[in-house]
């Protein structure tokens, strides 16, 4: 907000002509999104964006975005461009609204700053307007008056952004405390509450929840159980809490009828990822001489250099036969275990989100009868 009152949405301000320096509004917005994706909303400054672009001074950006508020307007709408909507509402209103909500949820996980900034500016951009118009048109088609349609749209949007904000703040808390795996959270909880809290207090159900959490072990397949391969010492726990890109591509309009099919599709994707992780482990154990490349859901690539297996077949540099093969297998197993836990954590987050969404749509459907 400026000192002279609210800044008008950038859509009401003219876009300046391009200058000779070769950059324009799109370049500025893309650079700002990259910065915020990496460092959060607090990393978003005009100086940082100018440095990212190699601009001479931050002031040179104002010609294109008018103010930081204008830059935020453009960033929010660029993020909304990732949310797909049908051109017109169809017969399966629940399936279509589920798809839009899940697509929006996936977008907010890719851009955690979105939920923190979206309520600071008017949602007046073309992509945000397209999404809202579709939701309003859906309820209009169901015979609802405009006030009711707007209320339902706000209810759905409030659920999605509220869940997104909670997820983003929890992710930021993990980063502040250098938690890289759920094992770190378990360790901290044990330090605070002990291994076996008493159920004699005023919150016996919460105590049971905590006991269950502390008893979980996370195995290489990303599941939980007492016989886990990963213990409380956190061996191999290099997973990050952010598995946001796992949700990329879900929620395509018309791809499924509702929540049940979405869950089935996500489960199949998880199975594929876990199977791939297992193959990486087995490949490492065999110690093959080929270069192995594994790419996880955030696009990170991990390579195992050619020839490691050959060294493992005979005396190694240290004189221990097979040490190269063993080291390769252990590294691959640790990486696969961490990646599988990321997949499982993302699937659990999405399932919890869709459960709440299903309950919300149940309530709306009951009122529409």
Q: What percent strand?
A: under 5%
The residue fraction in helices comes out at 55-70%
What quaternary form is this?
Answer: single chain
Q: Structural class from helices and strands?
A: mainly alpha
Radius of gyration: 24 Å
- What gap, in angstroms, lies between the N and C termini? 44 Å
The number of helical segments is 13
Mean pLDDT rating: 75
Global shape: globular
Q: Order of strands side by side in the largest beta sheet? A: 1-2
Report on this model:
By secondary structure, the chain is mostly helical. The chain contains 13 helices and 2 strands. Strands 1-2 form a two-stranded antiparallel ribbon. A hairpin with a 5-residue loop joins strand 1 and strand 2 (301-304). The model is unreliable at 220-319 (pLDDT under 50).
Map the helices and strands:
Elements: H1 25-39, H2 46-53, H3 59-65, H4 68-80, H5 93-110, H6 113-117, H7 126-141, H8 146-176, H9 182-193, H10 204-215, H11 259-286, E1 292-295, E2 301-304, H12 308-312, H13 323-368
Antiparallel strand pairs: 1-2
Short account of what is shown:
This protein has helices at 25-39, 46-53, 59-65, 68-80, 93-110, 113-117, 126-141, 146-176, 182-193, 204-215, 259-286, 308-312, 323-368, and strands at 292-295, 301-304. Helices cover 59% and strands 2% of the residues.
């Amino acid at each position: 907000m400026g000192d002279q009152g609210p800044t008008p949405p950038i859509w009401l301000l003219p876009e300046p002509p391009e200058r000779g320096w070769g950059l324009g509004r799109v370049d500025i917005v893309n650079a700002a999104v990259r910065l915020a994706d990496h460092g959060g909303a607090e990393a978003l400054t005009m100086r940082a964006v100018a440095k990212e672009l190699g601009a001479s001074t931050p002031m040179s950006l104002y010609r294109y975005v008018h103010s930081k508020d204008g830059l935020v307007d453009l960033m929010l709408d660029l993020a909304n461009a990732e949310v797909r909507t049908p051109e017109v509402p169809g017969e399966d209103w629940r399936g279509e609204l589920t798809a839009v909500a899940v697509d929006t949820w996936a977008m907010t996980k890719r851009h955690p700053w979105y939920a923190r900034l979206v309520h600071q500016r008017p949602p007046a951009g073309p992509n945000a307007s397209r999404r809202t118009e579709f939701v309003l048109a859906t309820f209009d088609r169901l015979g609802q008056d405009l006030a009711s349609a707007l209320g339902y749209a706000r209810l759905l949007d409030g659920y999605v952004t509220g869940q997104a904000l909670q997820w983003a703040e929890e992710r930021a808390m993990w980063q502040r405390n250098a938690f890289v795996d759920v094992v770190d959270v378990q360790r901290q909880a044990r330090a605070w509450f002990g291994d076996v809290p008493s159920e004699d207090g005023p919150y016996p159900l919460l105590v049971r929840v905590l006991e269950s959490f502390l008893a979980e072990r996370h195995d290489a397949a990303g599941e939980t159980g007492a016989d886990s391969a990963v213990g409380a010492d956190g061996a191999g726990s290099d997973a990050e809490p952010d598995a946001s890109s796992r949700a990329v591509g879900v929620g395509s309009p018309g791809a499924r009828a509702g929540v049940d099919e979405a869950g089935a599709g996500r489960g199949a994707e998880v199975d594929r990822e876990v199977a791939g992780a297992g193959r990486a482990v087995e490949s490492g154990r065999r110690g093959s001489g080929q270069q192995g490349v594994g790419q996880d859901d955030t696009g990170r690539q991990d390579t195992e250099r050619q020839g490691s297996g050959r060294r493992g077949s005979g005396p190694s540099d240290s004189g221990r036969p097979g040490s190269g093969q063993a080291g390769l297998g252990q590294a691959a197993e640790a990486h696969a275990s961490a990646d599988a836990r990321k997949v499982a954590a993302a699937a659990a987050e999405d399932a919890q989100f869709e459960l709440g969404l299903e309950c919300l749509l149940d309530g709306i459907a009951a009122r529409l009868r």
